Amino acid sequence: MWDSSQLVLELPEIEFNSDDFLKEMQDFPFHDYLNDHEDTTPMQVSYDKALLETKAVKHFLNIFKDWDIPINTTEEVNSYTPGLKGYFLIRTAKQTQFDLHIDALRTVGIVFPLTFPQRIVFKHAEDPSISYVHEYKPNVITLINVKEPHMISKCNEPRVQFQLDCTKTWEEVKQLSKQL
Questions:
Q1: Backbone angles phi, psi at 24, to 5 degrees
Q2: For 57-100, what is the HEC assignment?
Q3: Angle subtended at Cα 160 by Cα 158 and Cα 166, rounded to the nearest 5 degrees
């Protein structure tokens, strides 16, 4: 059996309303998400600086202020890949998936799921036949260990999330989460 606490940690103790957060995210522009080879993927992202000025994002940046979230709003960083800005709004088209990968520039994703249903699938590094499927819950912030192989499975509806990038280790984040 695979220990899911090494992959996912839910934070139900933090007050978060998926519907209210989604309402604040409505008018931000999306761009095609590019992979490491600069190829288009089935996802779109927004790195609009105004996201950082929304009530919801300001609130959660304050809650996670000691978590090493590398906010970068300089114009030089123009690639649409995670881990470069410290934050992003993401939308995945329905009936598409994002292939198995390990994130290169961050260790933990702080996920604010905004539409449902949606899930993430982790595959065991030594034995890909072993997997763990996590179903995101409404109103629950979820930490994901993006240094473990994971993929986004197909959804019947578009999937929308806001994420903060964290560069602390998974063990450090588990300890910090106990202080929330």
A1: -70, -20
A2: HHHHHHHCCCCCCCCCCCCCCCCCCCCCCCEEEEEECCCCCEEE
A3: 145
pLDDT tens per residue across span 25-48: 999 999 888 776 777 777 888 989
Distance CA 109, CA 143 (A): 6
HSE (CB half, 13 Å, CA atoms) of 11?
24
The bridge status of strand 119-123 relative to strand 108-113 is unpaired
- Could you tell me which residues come within 8 angstroms of residue 173 by beta carbon, excluding any fewer than 6 positions away? 9, 67, 107, 108, 143, 166
Contact 104, 83 (CB under 8 A): yes
Residue 149, preceding peptide bond in cis (omega within 30° of 0): no
- The residue type of 9 is L
Cα 37 vs. chain centroid, distance in angstroms?
A: 21
Flag residues of the chain having pLDDT under 50: 77-78
pTM of the prediction? 0.92
